[in-house]
């Protein structure tokens, strides 16, 4: 199967009520690795992810995948900062994307049980998903996003409000997914997490890419004074 990547944004702008939230953005993301989007509050991290995924349509410019949009959409997943679940059992939530992809129920349930085991949810399969704890809910959201082995996973603050142990588990799943070939594009406020996970960094400021590059040189010596100040923990606005 052809990979949906690279993703190319060309002069992409997202506007709401005459206000530019993001852009213009020009970038190309290749097929492998973890790109972490960082920047101050309100700099546009969520909006950039939503725009790339097609949850919000660009008002100018373009967002192009290597395959037609309808095909690209089926090969992507998105994990929201506040995970959402169907008011059904954990197993029903897990198999939902597979059923949408036409996988027969017995096979979908087998895959659902297997991924639940990897994500520590085996004991919860019959439980109603909305009654899960925050950490379990985020694990479920991630497992459900990865069950179709998407080419691309967008994750918006996937560990916000989680304790250290759960964060470590979620990070391990994210790294494993990237190692298995899922391209990860995630936003985080947590600079420790950005340093642990990123192969590549996008530093946003006022809805524009202020700096973008390989993670190690970025963290060791950012090119712009704004990124340096942000990494020091100064207020950048
Ligand atoms: N639907 C909307 N309508 C109007 N303005 C919006 C909308 N969504 C976001 N914004 C504004 O766009 C800007 C970017 O918001 P966004 O949530 O993308 O930033 P962020 O970097 O993810 O912020 P945070 O770190 O606080 O989560 C903010 O000024 C926000 O108030």
UniProtKB/TrEMBL annotation:
Domain of life: Bacteria
Record-level GO cellular component terms: plasma membrane
GO MF terms, alphabetically ordered: ATP binding; ATP hydrolysis activity
Principal localisation: membrane
PROSITE patterns hit by this protein: ABC_TRANSPORTER_2
Domain (ABC transporter): residue spans on this chain: 2-231
Subcellular location: Cell membrane
One Pfam family this sequence matches: ABC_tran
Alphabetical list of InterPro entries matching this protein: AAA+_ATPase, ABC_transporter-like_ATP-bd, MetN_ABC_transporter-like, P-loop_NTPase
SUPFAM superfamilies, A to Z: P-loop containing nucleoside triphosphate hydrolases
Membrane topology (UniProt): Peripheral membrane protein
Keywords: ATP-binding, Cell membrane, Membrane, Nucleotide-binding, Transport
Family: Belongs to the ABC transporter superfamily.
Protein name from the UniProt record: Glutamine transport ATP-binding protein GlnQ
Originating organism: Jannaschia donghaensis
Gene name as annotated: glnQ_1
């Amino acid at each position: 199967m052809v990979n949906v990547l690279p993703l190319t944004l060309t002069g992409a702008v997202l506007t709401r009520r005459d206000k530019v939230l993001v852009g213009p953005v020009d970038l190309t993301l290749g097929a492998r690795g973890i790109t972490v989007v960082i920047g101050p509050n309100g700099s546009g991290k969520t909006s950039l992810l939503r725009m790339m995924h097609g949850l919000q349509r660009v008002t100018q410019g373009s967002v192009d995948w290597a395959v037609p949009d309808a095909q690209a959409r089926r090969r992507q997943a998105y994990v929201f900062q506040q995970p959402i679940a169907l008011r059904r059992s954990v197993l029903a939530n897990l198999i939902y994307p597979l059923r949408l992809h036409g996988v027969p129920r017995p096979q979908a349930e087998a895959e659902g049980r297997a991924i639940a085991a990897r994500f520590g949810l085996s004991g919860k399969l019959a439980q109603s998903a909305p009654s899960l704890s925050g950490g379990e809910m985020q694990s479920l959201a991630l497992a459900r996003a990865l069950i179709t082995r998407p080419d691309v996973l967008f994750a918006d603050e996937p560990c916000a409000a989680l304790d250290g142990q759960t964060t470590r588990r979620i990070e391990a799943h994210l790294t494993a997914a990237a190692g298995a070939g899922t391209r990860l594009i995630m936003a985080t406020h947590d600079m420790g997490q950005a340093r642990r996970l990123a192969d590549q960094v996008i530093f946003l400021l006022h809805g524009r890419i202020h700096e973008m590059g390989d993670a190690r040189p970025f963290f060791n010596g950012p090119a712009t004074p704004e990124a340096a100040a942000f990494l020091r923990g100064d207020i950048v606005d």
